[in-house]
Automatic annotation (TrEMBL):
Enzymatic reactions: 2'-deoxyribonucleotide-(2'-deoxyribose 5'-phosphate)-2'-deoxyribonucleotide-DNA = a 3'-end 2'-deoxyribonucleotide-(2,3-dehydro-2,3-deoxyribose 5'-phosphate)-DNA + a 5'-end 5'-phospho-2'-deoxyribonucleoside-DNA + H(+); Hydrolysis of DNA containing ring-opened 7-methylguanine residues, releasing 2,6-diamino-4-hydroxy-5-(N-methyl)formamidopyrimidine
Assembly and interaction partners: Monomer.
Domain of life of the native organism: Bacteria
SUPFAM superfamilies recorded: Glucocorticoid receptor-like (DNA-binding domain), N-terminal domain of MutM-like DNA repair proteins, S13-like H2TH domain
Function: Involved in base excision repair of DNA damaged by oxidation or by mutagenic agents. Acts as DNA glycosylase that recognizes and removes damaged bases. Has a preference for oxidized purines, such as 7,8-dihydro-8-oxoguanine (8-oxoG). Has AP (apurinic/apyrimidinic) lyase activity and introduces nicks in the DNA strand. Cleaves the DNA backbone by beta-delta elimination to generate a single-strand break at the site of the removed base with both 3'- and 5'-phosphates.
Species annotation: Microlunatus kandeliicorticis
A GO molecular function held by the record: 8-oxo-7,8-dihydroguanine DNA N-glycosylase activity
Cofactor needs: Zn(2+)
E.C. no: 3.2.2.23, 4.2.99.18
Annotated residues for binding of DNA: 115, 157
Active site (catalytic residues): 2-3, 61, 267
Protein name (record): Formamidopyrimidine-DNA glycosylase
Gene coding for it: mutM
InterPro entries xref list: FPG_cat (IPR012319), FPG_Glyclase (IPR020629), FPG_N (IPR035937), H2TH_FPG (IPR015886), Ribosomal_uS13-like_H2TH (IPR010979), Znf_DNA_glyclase/AP_lyase (IPR000214), Znf_FPG/IleRS (IPR010663)
Length: 286
DNA sequence: ACCATGACCTGCCCGC
DNA sequence: TGCGGGCAGGTCATGG
């Protein structure tokens, strides 16, 4: 379950379920999710036996399970990845790809992924911050997140505002849903040119992105269906609280005019045509 | 260097 | 009922 609040919900579930537990065996049921482990599925499985998980960590949408010896299992959920914690006699969910068993004989950890854009790999020395994560920016929940500096970096770009919000190297954790929600809260159009955007507006949309993701986290994240669930298989409830995403033709909660769905960047964008008017020429970048 | 686009996958839903 | 197209919240490699 893709964006920051959903990934953080999973991280918390993993903290409760696997921290301090020692792996007894790993079973790779489909090679694709471990494709980034270049030594191959068998090596991945063998390398993890006997190792102990520490407290799971996250930056943006990347998640990693540090091992007590300083390495880490890096995970990305992609579009449809899930972690599930289930007793061994509990049947596998469809699309179960990797299974971790533990020495204590307690519940298994299963990686489930329908579309397999996500994956797992072993990151040597990655307990603190895996190399594979170093290229992305800090997310808005990071204590070292520098809102003013990120806003300046956004304004140095020559692109549309939503493209910048989705660029994980500038600020991580924001995806299609929360970008639209943040833009609506900040009353900005997705194609607003970043290079003519005032600093105050750039900071405002970052503040709103953080705020909407914090609200979502309180409700266990957003999910529209069974594809996005926490480690117990339960869905979050934030979809009921979304203001614009997925609400084409419904009234804007602020002004009552119908929300519009538009294609942008080969995906859907939702906006209020009144609260988030198309910028005048010279202030738009499609 | 930046920026935009397509590729990578499976499965569901809709209209014909 | 069956089939094709469109759609889905992710990133990454590759062009310009």
């Amino acid at each position: 379950m893709p964006e920051l609040p959903e990934v953080e919900t999973v991280r918390r579930g993993l903290e409760a379920a696997v921290a301090g537990r020692t792996v007894s065996g790993v079973e790779v049921l489909h090679p694709r999710p471990v494709r980034r482990h270049l030594a191959g599925p068998d090596d991945f499985a063998a390398a993890l036996s006997g190792r102990t998980f520490a407290v799971p960590a996250r930056r943006g949408k990347y998640l990693w399970l540090p091992l007590t010896d300083g390495d880490a299992v890096l995970a990305h959920l992609g579009m449809s990845g899930q972690f599930r914690v289930e007793d061994a006699d509990h049947p596998d969910a469809p699309n179960t790809r990797v299974r971790f068993r533990f020495r204590d004989g307690g519940p298994e950890l299963r990686f489930v992924d329908q579309r397999m854009f996500g994956g797992l790999s072993l990151s040597p020395g990655g307990a603190e911050l895996p190399d594979e994560v170093a290229h992305i920016g800090r997310d808005p929940f990071d204590p070292a997140f520098d809102q003013r500096a990120v806003a300046r970096a956004v304004r140095r770009r020559r692109t549309g505002l939503k493209r910048a919000l989705l660029d994980q190297t500038l600020v991580s954790g924001i995806g299609n849903i929360y970008a639209d929600e943040a833009l609506w809260r900040a009353r900005l159009h997705y194609a607003r040119a970043t290079d003519t955007l005032p600093q105050s507006a750039a900071e405002r949309v970052l503040v709103e992105a953080r705020a909407v993701m914090a609200d979502a986290l309180l409700q266990g994240g957003t999910s529209f269906d069974a594809l996005y669930v926490n480690v117990n298989g339960e869905s979050g409830y934030f979809d009921r609280t979304l203001d614009v995403y997925g609400r084409a033709d419904e009234p804007c909660p602020r002004c009552g005019r119908p929300i519009r769905r538009e294609a942008f960047m080969n995906r859907s964008s939702y906006r209020c045509p009144f609260c988030q008017r198309t910028p005048r020429a010279g202030h738009v970048r499609w």
